């Protein structure tokens, strides 16, 4: 909404969409944090340190309310208190609280993060950069710790035909909430990086660039895979 001047940030029944996300995960927390990273390239996830608590903001839906909600959870607001302010279903509030509770725990532990906590963070959608910010480390150090301790994602496939017949389309996503791959990639592939954060005026054009690149690589006899936020 920051693209538009003199436009109210309050969200109501009128359409104000300036982009879209499609986050896929096996837990709500995982998909939610993926979605937040897709909305804005400057956001690492459900970050409680971006905004301060403001109950007036909590009462009115805006494009930034979820981050004020994160700050409120970190400040100790109860699920019932937040429900009374936001009218967001308690189920969702509890899932958001799970993220903030682990965020707080990682801040308390600091740089010597146990593998079990690192694995738990990845399962509820924390990125390496997000974890690094919590423990005052670097994204590369967190990545190295993950790889050394075999905390790695698995490739899962979305069944687009609900099991009626074998799915032939490879709609794939990465998740840490699994123990095996749905699809293996034993042969060499050429990776095409997707368009990233979606914005009006960029998403369709960048997607078409990526698809055009994939088609040309296939014409050259290359096997391809496109990677985006999921």
Outline of this structure?
The chain has 230 residues and is mainly alpha-helical.
Structure description:
The protein has 230 residues and is mainly α. It has 2 domains: 28-152, Carbamoyl-phosphate synthetase, large subunit oligomerisation domain (Carbamoyl Phosphate Synthetase, Chain A, domain 4), CATH 1.10.1030.10; 187-229, Rossmann fold, CATH 3.40.50.20. The chain is 43% helix and 7% strand. The protein is built from 9 helices and 4 strands. The chain has helices spanning 28-39, 55-59, 65-74, 79-86, 90-109, 115-123, 128-135, 139-148, 203-219; strands at 154-157, 172-175, 190-193, 224-227. Helix 4 crosses helix 5 (90-109) and helix 7 crosses helix 8 (139-148). One of its GO terms (biological process) is UTP biosynthetic process. Keywords: ATP-binding, Ligase, Nucleotide-binding. Residues 53-176 form the Carbamoyl-phosphate synthetase large subunit oligomerisation domain. One of its GO terms (molecular function) is ATP binding.
Q: If you consult CATH, what is the topology of the largest domain?
A: Carbamoyl Phosphate Synthetase, Chain A, domain 4
Tally of helical runs: 9
Please identify the structural class as seen in this structure.
mainly alpha
* Count of all domains: 2
Provide the CATH architecture of the largest domain.
Answer: Orthogonal Bundle
Radius of gyration: 20 Å
Domain Carbamoyl-phosphate synthetase large subunit oligomerisation: 53-176
GO molecular function: aspartate carbamoyltransferase activity; ATP binding; carbamoyl-phosphate synthase (glutamine-hydrolyzing) activity; dihydroorotase activity
Protein name: Carbomoylphosphate synthase
GO cellular component, one term: cytosol
């Amino acid at each position: 909404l920051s693209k538009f001047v003199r436009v109210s940030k309050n969200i109501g029944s009128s359409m104000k969409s300036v982009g879209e996300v499609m986050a896929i995960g096996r837990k709500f927390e995982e998909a939610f944090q993926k979605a937040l990273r897709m909305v804005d390239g400057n956001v690492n996830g459900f970050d409680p340190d971006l905004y301060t608590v403001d109950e007036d903001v909590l009462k009115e839906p805006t494009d930034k309310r979820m981050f004020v909600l994160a700050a409120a959870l970190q400040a100790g607001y109860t699920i019932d208190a937040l429900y009374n302010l936001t009218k967001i279903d308690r189920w969702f509030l509890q899932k958001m609280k799970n993220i903030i509770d682990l965020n707080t725990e990682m801040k308390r532990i600091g740089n010597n993060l146990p593998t079990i906590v690192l694995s738990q963070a990845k399962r509820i959608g924390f990125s390496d950069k997000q974890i690094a910010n919590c423990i005052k480390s670097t994204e590369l150090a967190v990545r190295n710790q993950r790889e050394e301790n075999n905390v790695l994602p698995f490739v899962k496939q979305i069944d687009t035909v609900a099991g009626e017949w074998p799915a032939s389309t490879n709609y794939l996503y990465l998740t840490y909430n699994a123990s095996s791959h749905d699809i293996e990639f034993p042969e060499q592939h050429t990776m095409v990086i997707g368009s990233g954060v979606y914005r009006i005026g960029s998403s369709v054009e960048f997607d078409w660039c990526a698809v055009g690149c994939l088609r040309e690589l296939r014409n050259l006899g290359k096997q391809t895979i496109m990677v985006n936020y999921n």
